[in-house]
Amino acid sequence: MPASEILLTIQSDTKEEEREIIIQFLSRLQYSKYTLNDFECPDFDMKLNNRDIGVEVTKYYTDFGKKGSAKQKKISEWKKFSEELKANLGRINSQNDFVYGAIHFCVNSVRHRELLNNAPFNELVSLIENNRPDKNESKNVIISKEIYPIIGKYIGSVYLLNTFPETKYLWWDSSLQSGEVVNNRNAVRLIIEKKERASKKYKRDYFQKWLIIYAGGLGLHDMYLGTSERVYRQGKIGVIEESDSVQLYQDAYKSEYFSHIFIWDKYSETIFLLSPYFKKIFDYGKKEIYVNHLPLKD
Question: What residues make up the domain containing 37?
């Protein structure tokens, strides 16, 4: 499966996506009888076990700072670019609809939209025509600066895959899935502080007020492990490296507004309670739910 598969799952923080996150979150904690109504400040009104609960949903990124997540911005910009690139290639030759490419840039700072300009785009088209893989076959093309003097300045190689009969896959920047997961506890703190500031606009009171921080696990930039394990990307595989004594991060965060703060890591399928105290409350791999620490009990 092409690495750009994750681009097909990225949504733009819609109400529908937020609702689905809450529904899946509740199902993991074995809550089934509830009503969920759209709201603003917080995101949703929920009735659970005959209790009124306000629910706010946000996303976790390892590099989240005061100006948001640079990595997420880069991925969003690449998605827009790759959609335009795919459309342009398809207009040149309908067979290009089946061509997926992963570009390995050889320089750090690249204005990838320059590939849409006439000269570099024509070189890319020529590269595809000269190296088009057969159906369901792939080729790794090393870029010759003599043959491709323009794109050769910043592209080292291009991996081409014929995805016939699929046409949905977008092109990919290989650097987007390289590196190591960083368990950035400061990012969690900044996310909570941002939501704390926003909560001052909330007017409705609730029995409980939840903040659900969702780590979607689409790549290395949005995984939260909660342990001292290290995760690397090797191709399409996330590799977890355990030390001799894996330590659970005891991260408890204080909140003036939220009665409960959770972080759900979709990649590892674990849910941690971060406030009012720290506790892992769900672990799919171990088939465990820590019922004594659930926010509401039947």
Answer: 3-62+181-293
Angle between the 70-92 and 118-131 helix axes, to the nearest 10 degrees? Answer: 70
Q: Does residue 201 register a pLDDT over 80?
A: yes
Token match 């368990």: residue? 183
**pLDDT value at residue 241:** 46
**Cα–chain center distance at 184:** 15
Angle at 269 between CA 268 and CA 271, to 5 degrees: 110
- Count structural domains, the chain: 2
> What is the end-to-end Cα distance of the chain in Å, rounded?
42
**In a shared domain, residues 287 and 155:** no
Residue 84: strand, helix, or coil: helix
Q: How far apart are CA 292 and CA 53, in angstroms?
A: 19
Q: For the segment 48-94, what is each residue's pLDDT rounded down to a tens digit? A: 999 999 999 998 887 766 666 777 777 778 888 999 999 999 999 99
Contact (CB, 8 A) for 158 and 101: yes
Burial class (CB in 10 A: 0-12, 13-18, 19+), 186: exposed
Q: Strand order of the sheet with strand 138-142?
A: 138-142, 155-162, 99-105, 172-173
Contact (CB, 8 A) for 271 and 294: no
Q: What is the pLDDT of residue 235?
A: 46
Instruction: Decide: pTM greater than 0.90.
Output: no
The model's pLDDT over 129-161, given as tens digits with 9 standing for 90+, comes to 999 999 989 999 999 999 999 999 999 999 999
Question: Do 86 and 221 share a domain, yes or no?
Answer: no
Q: Which residues contact 194 (CB under 8 A, 6 or more apart)?
A: 58
Is residue 248 scored above 60 in pLDDT? no
Domain assignment present for residue 128? The answer is yes
